[in-house]
From TrEMBL:
Originating organism: Nonomuraea antimicrobica
Domain of life according to the entry: Bacteria
Protein name from the UniProt record: Uncharacterized protein
Length: 441
């Protein structure tokens, strides 16, 4: 975003409070002739009126930056909705009001995308190989045909690999004899959520807020949406999505000797075969109970923005309290990013062979970036760190693995793609849904 934005309120400098509504209506008539906002204005309190008047003026003063054909009426409608939900006001520090208003109008998105060059066809080809590991394009548009799926091999090795993963997780949280599991108070996690949401909104560059339809503008409050994984309702869908997620990790993981490659698994072709296998897996004796317990120990999110965090501190001595404290923060960022990801980007997971790169890899790649920044901020403010996650023991730097992208091959895939396309293009795809910038049609 290199073009200068005008923050200039001189057109309304002489407007009294009483004249504010009339003036907002006049500005709206100029911006979007025919759009009648008069009925909406009746519902606005004083702060919302101020917000609307200043936001419309700001938008109007920056119209010159927008391309012809930009939908002003949609921008005004979004701003109207936002005035009812936002707490921002003109004069807020760091131009927070202006940044929110211009983001909601859609102007920031236009400028961000305008500043990015399209991806070269060479780079599209290169990232295409990462998205579709089983299908190698020859460069002339033809794609290697993947041999038939070796279902018996896949079933045997996948089931044993999954059992290892599940038992490993349960062991990790198994208390020793006479040992009691410790829990982090949920309220301290909610305090942390306020810091995370504010940071993500205002201190991670323009992309997270660049989506005019972002939940960040609808009054979403992360601190009110945090729940404990221990209270989660275990449904069939939940069990299935947990085992599907882990199956993909096992299938692509080097620790299982490239199982998907060995068994000719192609995500664009064999998704339903994998689903059937997972139904068989869940039908094995004792598995549903074990998977249910794993779900209650694993951070997760749902489409409505509910974020579940595991408050249980693992008893293992290898996992220090310090590591766990940072893991809470890292998981919160990860689950929150799921909620901020653009629906248009998420939809692409169905279209590629290794959909988990989109479902989880990009999420964790950005998680690691935000986590590194936030750790730097937090360690500068010990009072802040002490207030949330009030665990015993000194606050030491997080272990190195937490600073890097996790999620196995899916995370590494996202890292490789970001290296090719650059962080701005990856963010444009993830937050703004401009998927072609990440090499996705
Ligand atoms: Zn996730």
């Amino acid at each position: 975003m290199n073009r200068p934005l005008k923050v200039d309120y001189t057109p309304i400098s002489g407007v009294s409070k009483e004249q504010g509504v009339t003036h907002a209506k006049k500005t709206c008539d100029k911006l979007a002739p025919g759009l009648n906002i008069a009925p909406d204005l009746l519902h606005l309190d004083d702060d919302a009126q101020t917000r609307l008047l200043f936001a419309l003026t700001l938008f109007d003063r920056n119209l010159g930056l927008l391309p012809p054909g930009f939908d002003n009426a949609q921008a005004v409608k979004r701003l109207l909705r936002w005035t009812l939900k936002s707490k921002a006001l003109p004069g807020d520090p760091d131009q927070r009001f202006e940044r929110e208003a211009l983001s909601v109008s859609g102007l920031v998105k236009v400028l961000l995308l305008d500043g990015l060059r399209p991806l070269s066809s060479k780079d599209v080809l290169e990232v295409g190989k990462i998205y579709n590991p089983a299908r190698v394009s020859t460069g002339t548009g033809t794609v290697r045909t993947v041999p038939p799926l070796k279902i018996d091999l896949l079933r045997a090795d996948l089931f044993s690999g999954l059992e290892q993963v599940i038992d490993g997780q349960l062991d990790y949280f198994q208390p020793g004899k006479g040992q009691k599991l410790q829990r982090v108070p949920m309220d301290s996690l909610r305090q942390l959520a306020t810091v995370v949401q504010d940071y993500m909104k205002f201190q991670c560059g323009s992309f997270p807020m660049g989506n005019p339809d972002s939940p960040l503008f609808t009054g979403y409050d992360l601190s009110k949406r945090i729940e404990s994984t221990e209270s989660v309702q275990i449904t069939d869908d939940f069990l299935m999505s947990y085992v599907m997620n882990r199956a993909i990790g096992v299938g692509y993981g080097p620790e299982h000797n490239e199982l998907f490659t060995r068994s000719n698994f192609d995500g664009t072709r064999d998704d339903s075969a994998l689903y059937d296998l997972m139904q068989q897996f869940l039908g094995r004796p004792g598995i549903r109970g074990k998977v249910g317990r794993c779900i209650q120990l694993t951070g997760s999110h749902s489409g409505d923005g509910t974020i579940r965090l595991n408050p249980v501190i693992p008893p293992s001595t290898s996992q220090s309290t310090n590591t766990w404290r940072w893991d809470m923060l890292r998981t919160m960022i990860h689950e929150f990013l799921h909620h901020l990801s653009h629906p248009g980007f998420n939809a692409k997971a169905q279209k590629i062979g290794h959909g988990q790169i989109i479902d989880e890899g990009f999420v964790d790649m950005i998680t690691a970036i935000v986590f590194r920044q936030l750790v730097g901020e937090i360690t500068k403010k010990p009072d802040l760190t002490g207030r949330f996650l009030p665990l015993q023991g000194p606050i030491l730097p997080p272990p190195t693995w937490q600073l890097k992208t996790q999620y196995g091959e899916a995370g590494q895939g996202a890292d490789k793609i970001t290296k090719v396309v650059g962080q701005d293009r990856a963010y444009a795809a993830f937050f703004l849904g401009s998927t072609q910038h990440a090499g996705l049609k």
